[in-house]
Amino acid sequence: MTLMDSSALSPAVYFIGAGPGDPELLTVKAYKILQKADVIVFADSLVPKQILEDTRKDAELIPTSSITLEEIIPLMIDRVRRGLAVVRLQSGDLSLYSAIQEQIELLTAADIPFQLIPGISAFQGLAAKLALELTIPELVQTIILTRVEGKASPMPESEELASLAAHKASLCLYLAARHIDKAQEKLLQHYPPEQKVAVCFRLGWPDEKTWVVPLSEMAKLTHRENLTRTTLYLISPALNQITGTRSQLYHPQHSHLFRPHP
């Protein structure tokens, strides 16, 4: 398979999930589009510069950390109407905390074509770093992706953190570093204090750091390391190193469509 593709991009906005930070975790499709784009509008506070290394030398690079949606959307509309291919490069996966819904609505209203190219989410990258399966038979079969309520995004009342913690599932906590004391208090209502928590700062970046600590020390670690952003917390029974369980999928006594009993 070659990563080079000589075909030109159609004028449109291409939303790309850049993943947590490692350029090698870009999808092949995302990499090809980045190589050919005329304009790249990127979240510079969340996307490391290494992601942009193989872009065209003449591509217009527009950072967005200091501008508003009211500036970003007209800019993208203008470039597409001028016949250019625009990448809207965002961190992680587009389906999680990306604020793309309002962008899509405004582009649709302006009759601007767009595509979505998904990326790897930080929770997947962290699980891989830890060599961890988050759904272990008889132990945990549910993954919850959530956040702590903040000024920019209020939480629905039915998704309050303590009520989600009651499931004792593999819980991936985003955007929580600035509210970590409150988060720890709510998690301890249902998880035991000794429950292990993986804390990862800037996953996939050159200065990445990862710790595994008891839940009772999660807030203390966060304050000690001065973690205020770009931090993911993974609370999961799978971290407690329980062994002896196995899936029935490949068990010799388990039959299915492709492996019926003889």
Descriptive report:
There is one protein chain. By secondary structure, this protein is α/β, with parallel strands linked by helices. It folds into two domains: 12-117, 3-Layer(aba) Sandwich (Cobalt-precorrin-4 Transmethylase, domain 1); 122-239, Tetrapyrrole methylase, C-terminal domain (Methyltransferase, Cobalt-precorrin-4 Transmethylase, Domain 2), CATH 3.30.950.10. Helices cover 23% and strands 19% of the residues. It is built from seven helices and ten strands. It has helices at 28-36, 69-81, 101-109, 122-129, 161-165, 180-187, 218-224; strands at 12-17, 39-42, 60-63, 85-90, 114-117, 143-147, 170-174, 196-201, 209-214, 231-235. The strands form two sheets. A five-stranded parallel sheet has the order 3-2-4-1-5, with helices on both faces. Strands 6-7-10-8-9 form a five-stranded mixed sheet, with helices on both faces. Strand 8 and strand 9 form a beta hairpin. The radius of gyration is 21 Å and the shape is elongated. The protein starts with 11 loop residues before the first strand and ends in a 27-residue tail after the last strand. 31% of the residues are buried. The model has no long low-confidence stretch (mean pLDDT 90).
Keywords:
single chain; 262 residues; alpha/beta; Cobalt-precorrin-4 Transmethylase, domain 1; Methyltransferase, Cobalt-precorrin-4 Transmethylase, Domain 2; 5-stranded parallel β-sheet; 7 helices; 23% helix
Beta strand %: 15-25%
Number of domains: 2
Shape by Cα distribution: elongated
Topology pattern, helix = H, strand = E: EHEEHEHEHEHEHEEHE
Report on the biggest sheet. 5 strands, parallel
Instruction: Enumerate how many helices there are, as a single number.
Output: 7
Radius of gyration: 21 Å
- The level of helicity is 10-25%
Query: What is CATH's topology name of the largest domain?
Result: Methyltransferase, Cobalt-precorrin-4 Transmethylase, Domain 2
Mean pLDDT: 90
Can you tell me the CATH class of the largest domain?
Alpha Beta
Low-confidence stretches: none
Measure the end-to-end span. Answer: 39 Å
What's the total count of β strands? 10
Tell me the structural class: alpha/beta
Q: From the 3D coordinates, which CATH architecture of the largest domain would you assign? A: 2-Layer Sandwich
| CATH homologous superfamily descriptor of the largest domain | Tetrapyrrole methylase, C-terminal domain
Question: Order of strands in the sheet with the most strands?
Answer: 3-2-4-1-5
Pfam families: TP_methylase
Domain Tetrapyrrole methylase: 13-218
GO molecular function: precorrin-4 C11-methyltransferase activity
Pathway: Cofactor biosynthesis; adenosylcobalamin biosynthesis
